[in-house]
Amino acid sequence: MGAGTEPDGSSRSDEEWERFLRESVAGAADAPKEPSARARDVAKRLRAEPDRAPEGWRSYTPARPKRRTGWYVVGLLASLVLLVVALAPGRIVDLFAGDAPDSPSLTAETARPSQAPPAGAAQRPTRGEPFRGSPAASWASGAAGITVPKAGAVGWMSAAEVERALARSRDFLVASGLDHEVLRGERPEKAIALINPHQTDVQDFLKTAFRTPSEKNDPLLLFSRFQPSRTQLVGDVVKTRGRLTYREGERGALQVTADVTFVYPVTRADAGDDDEIVRTIVRRELVLSWDDPAKVITEPGTFSIVSNKYDMTNGGCGAPTGYFTPPFGTDRRADEAGAEVDPYDRSAPIRRGESSEEECRRATRS
Predict the structure, then answer these.
(1) In this model, does residue 120 exceed pLDDT 80?
(2) How many CA atoms lie within 13 A of 42 on its CB side?
């Protein structure tokens, strides 16, 4: 019997039968194939939305995760706070205790205040923060605390000349009350150079005051000085608050009035890190006359002193020595016998006269 028989009864050859079996196993080249599942899904969507092109699976772009900006900022701020706490923990404590020693400075004083500054938290000063617990903590430092008004023409001076005279008036306050060499007891040569050398009474005072200090001729009437063998300043900063004003004086002169309070933190010359710190507070009122050289004998760039007053607390009450002598420890008892005074109250003029003969007064705060 042959390998196969056709329906009409004819027989297939062996070669034809083997080819049939191979094609049955491999499949004919043009035989239809079963579509894949994705092809069926695409065809179905095309029938439903004939105008929409199919999306290629490799062209899909996943959505980017949202940036967590808020958490990033919070983390950054937290890191900064931790850094501040690590570098200056004492200041953070002071902030929550109600006293910020480095709080923004007060606005410049341009007129006499109507009342004393409010009382703050009573805190002990330290070497790192010598103005802690004091109204002076928010005052400006050095010359920056002395307000100089805008200049205008007065008497014999033009506006530019008045501006120079005001600057030199402040220079005198700096040289007499802020110069570190003078504060350590040196002779105030720069300040003296600004005083009219032809003003006889003042020149006599200067010749005597530094050589033989007395109640009448005390250099502290014009200059701030501490004896280095007894007292040392704490740090390099002196806090100040005050102002200059001006008007036309006698014979067309420019009359400048200075009203400035100086706060000096001091301790014993041989003090350790934990020793007591005292703040010597000095308020000065000076009236200076920039005279017309055509009417008054003077030298260019110098002024005459019309009047001077000063008020001092925590500076000593004994016989004049030419230096402030701040009381420390048990010495404070002797200085606390006088009337009370708030040394930070600038709302009224100085009542103290030009002499240091009046009783020593006790500061209600320092």
Answers:
(1) no
(2) 10
